[in-house]
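Quick one: structure tokens for this chain, please?
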Amino acid sequence: MVSAKKKEMVTATLPAFIRTLFYFFCLTTCAKSISGQTKKDERIYPENFTRILDRLLDGYDNRLRPGFGGPVTEVKTDIYVTSFGPVSDVEMEYTMDVFFRQTWVDRRLMYEGPVEILRLNNLMVTKVWTPDTFFRNGKRSVAHNMTAPNKLFRIMKNGTILYTMRLTIIAQCPMKLVDFPMDGHACPLKFGSYAYPKTEMIYTWTKGPQHSVEVPPESSSLVQYDLTGQTVSSETIKSITGEYVVMTVYFHLKRKMGYFMIQTYIPCIMTVILSQVSFWINKESVPARTVFGITTVLTMTTLSISARHSLPKVSYATAMDWFIAVCFAFVFSALIEFAAVNYFTNAQIERAKRKPGKCPPVPQSTPVKVKDTEEVQQQVPDTNGSLRKRMNYVSHQDPTSQPRAQSTTNVSGLGRGRALRPLAGGANGSSSTLSRSSPKSESLLSVASSSAQLVKGTPQPAASTPDVMAGTPGRQGTDSASLHQLLGPKLERIQMMGNKLEPKQTPCSQPTATGMGGTSKIDKYARILFPVSFGAFNMVYWVVYLSKDTMVTKGN
């Protein structure tokens, strides 16, 4: 009985279970069809997105940060540099054009919809909360608004927000120009929250420290610098309003030297070499050496002034300042060197003038020998005493001739430079005169004068005197002409021989600047000392600065 009842109960409940399963299957099928129809309607009608946005903003307060009163809001950032430069040394600033991206999570903006990301324009930015990021070392920053505000805003299903802006930033770059122009700099870009301390909002790098800042090679084509790389870091800054997280990007710049080599270094080196050319110019060429010195000094002054135009007015000396100063010292020293040469040369001339002039000794004349006199007398034969008569007659006709002849007889006793008086006068008034004589010519002239004296001083017979005195004037002229004809050629020949043998001599005189010519010892030393010193300076200068690590560390 019991078993029969159990069978009847199972038979009765089985149709009910089947009916329940059938009803459940039908319900599931209807739910799927309705859901598919709803998704189809959402893809077709954009009004559904409007409803989603309206629901997101319904009750949303953009004055409160995400998680207000709760956890800290984390803002992830990264930077893409589209253009870097120019860099101004005078203003100590640089300019860059970037895409600045920020990402954070705002759970109040979570939604359910057919799309994963809502790509919105800049109008949505003003309706939601955004970080108050500012650039701490920025001088001027511009957000581009042409043709529309260059902003990107996207909302994801889980409430993650991506906010991107295109900015042109002019930031300060502190420069230490001690090693200019072989220097390097690390120009920072610092940004952080203006109002929220680190207890409410912090910043992190989206892709990590190594890849969060991108600078393509085509974006960093600078004129005076090479962008060698960039590094990132973060720090905490304390102020009276709290502690703030500051993100920093360092752009490492290395200066190019080509411009400064062409405009400053090579002209300075050439100017110094030009100033040292004056050492090879004769010291008597005062105008030429003075022009060299003054021109090179003025050129160095002009170069130093022009080199400072591209630098700020710093109070310390740069590497270029030291180089220009040393070049200026070399140029100025070359001018002072010539002044010293000129001074000592003039002093030497003055000392020589104070000393008595040294004249060469007067050569002693050769005394007239009897043999020489006899030779003259033999060459002029005295036939029947006519020569003696003529000479005696001439002595009686001109009483003044005897003292003159006596004064000119001994040539050796007169000294150098005295002329012999006429020995005999002819009808035509000609006379044989002997000028200055040398030792050899004096001997010849002594012979001639002695012969004339002997001829004149020969005692005349008393009987012949009346005969001569009784002669007519025509007779006297004839005798004089005969005497000149006999003695004249011989004496003129002796005089010509004396003039040929006599060297040209000047009277005793003081030394002049012409006599002090030649190269000064100071010039000789300067020709070696100046080039060697300048070459050694250049070697030390370039080795020190080119081997030195002049890149400024990011901490400074």
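The longest strand covers residues 73-88.
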